[in-house]
Write a structure and sequence with these properties.
Radius of gyration: 17 Å
Number of strands: 8
Helix content: 40-55%
Number of helices: 11
Bound molecules: phosphoenolpyruvate
Strand order of the largest sheet: 1-2-3-4-5-6-7-8
Length: 253
Amino acid sequence: MRRPFFGGNWKMNTTRAEAAELGRAVARDAFSGVDVAVFPPFVWLNAVGDALAGSPVALGAQDCSQHQNGAHTGEVSASMLAELGVAAVLVGHSERRHDVGEPDDLVRAKLAAVLDAGLTGVLCIGETLEQREAGQTDAVNERQLRSALDGLPGAAADRLVIAYEPVWAIGTGRTASPADAQAAHAAARGVIAGVLGGGAADAMRIIYGGSMKAANAAALLAEPDVDGGLVGGASLAAADFAEITRSAATANA
Ligand code: PEP
């Protein structure tokens, strides 16, 4: 039985005061039987870390550099994030792959940097609408997974979470059907088994992202290979985010 993982990706939202208040509100919520992390903007990590102190909610970052240090203006390294109390980092989010143009090899280097720093990596994969309509969903996920995971030390696999996030579902209000999500997750787990072995694949959390909300979370989480959620818009309201996490219990009841 995999313990569900839920991440709240705040993207480039919140003022400092709003972020601290949202962090305090998430920290006040009761989470049972699930791992929870929030991913505020870099500049509010300190404030949100303070707000989360003493709670089981982990502090996450939305990205990091592939480099450890040096002449990389504007970049933030995984070890700097670790020093701030960050426990998990998103890697390869579609808004970075597609808006910023991060290629597979950069995503791979960033994931390696996160894992080398002892942090949990949340590796995001997923197809565009055009790719889905061309029947390329599994092939795209396989390419992104193989590129990021090939050569990964087996010991790092337990600090890895995969987020399947169909690009056409992110921030659009369109959600993958539970059956489509399950099919993509099962195919991804098969690829992971081929790369890292069946034991690592069985243990790995593969979470769904893309317009997840309280109204659709239970049906998605009822699928056997859907092990939690990466939540964008709905994570900006603590009550909505908490309700989504509670859907995991309903789904598994
Ligand atoms: C995300 O940011 O990863 C995401 C899934 O966003 P949303 O829930 O808003 O679609």
